[in-house]
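Closing statement on the adenosine-5'-triphosphate sub-project.
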Amino acid sequence: MAQTLLKVAGLKVAYGGIQAVKGTDFEVREGELVSLIGSNGAGKTTTMKAITGSLPLAGGDIEFLGKSIKGQGPWDLVRQGLVMVPEGRGVFTRMSITENLLMGAYIRRDKAGVTSDVERVFTIFPRLRERKDQLAGTMSGAEQQMLAMGRALMSRPKLLLLDEPSMGLSPIMVDKVFEVVRDVYAQGVTILLVEQNASRALALADRGYVMESGLISMQGSGKNLLADPKVRAAYLGE
Ligand code: ATP
């Protein structure tokens, strides 16, 4: 079986006295695309923020490549290959596309490798090449999402966490963004995808987890979850 990249065990996260994540367990193995779905407020974003070190743990542990990463900050984790594309993208709006991509490679010293990776990103996202000198802030939401993913790829992640990449996009752009997620996965990048768009996220996933009120309530292959009557009733509006 493939190596476990990420293991979340008994994770608890609280905001003041309120527990948002109440003891969740899940894992992501090398080469997988795993989707975490659930309704608004279920605790998905909170889980992602705890994994990437921007929220403290109230309990449990998180292991990356077999070692606890509890207490480590986002920058340490990027260095180890754990990179998140946050909800809302967070591109540098007053920098060009190319400058944004280079920011993603700030931890790297191999100039030639960085230059060839910019080319690789432009091959995955031809739209970014067309606009490489344009300021990121002038691009559409979907283009900014592509740029945020491209920038994350520039650090050569072992695991890419995507938080709601389809949020706020028009239906056509949602299609485009899911295509792009599939392409990035096809390039061999392991992905943990958090989405409210359950049907799309499960259709792409090797495995999925359903989160409800801070706990994992169901898990299985993407295909089985997608066919499950409870999932269909609760998350696919049937
Ligand atoms: P969404 O898709 O809306 O982002 P989610 O599943 O990602 O939903 P979270 O954003 O993780 O859910 O929120 C989980 C719970 O924690 C919710 O009840 C939310 O109101 C609460 N919460 C989130 N952020 C904060 C905060 N900064 N302070 C207090 N409570 C918060």
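Residues 15, 18, 20, 38, 40-46, 196 surround adenosine-5'-triphosphate (CB under 6 Å). With this model delivered, the sub-project is considered complete and its resources will be redirected to Aim 3.
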